[in-house]
Amino acid sequence: MTAALQAQELPRLTWRQRLLRLMPWHKRLALLACLGIFSWAGSGMLHPLMGYLQPRPQTMATPQQVLPLDHLRSPAQVLGAAGVAQVQGLRLLVLAGEPYYQARLAGELQPRYWHARSGQAVELVAAHAESLARHYLGRDEPLAYAGSIERFTGEYAFINRLLPVARVDTQRDDSLRLYVDLFHDRLGTMVDERKAWFSAFFQTMHRFRWLDAAGPLRPVLMLVLLASIVSATLFGVALFIARRRARTFNRRLHGWWGLGLALATLSFASSGAWHLLHKQGAQPWPAPFVPSFNVAELDKAPAADWLLAGEELYMLSLLELDGKPIWRAQGQQFASMSSLHYLDAQGRELGNDTPRRYAQQRLDHYAKSLGLGEAQTLTLQHSFDHEYGFVFKRLPVFKASYADAHNTALFIDPLDGALASRVQDADRTEGWAFAYLHKWEFLAGLGNGYKHLLLGIVALAHVLLALVGLSLLRRGQHR
Question: Which domain of life does the protein's organism represent (predicted)?
Answer without folding.
Answer: Bacteria
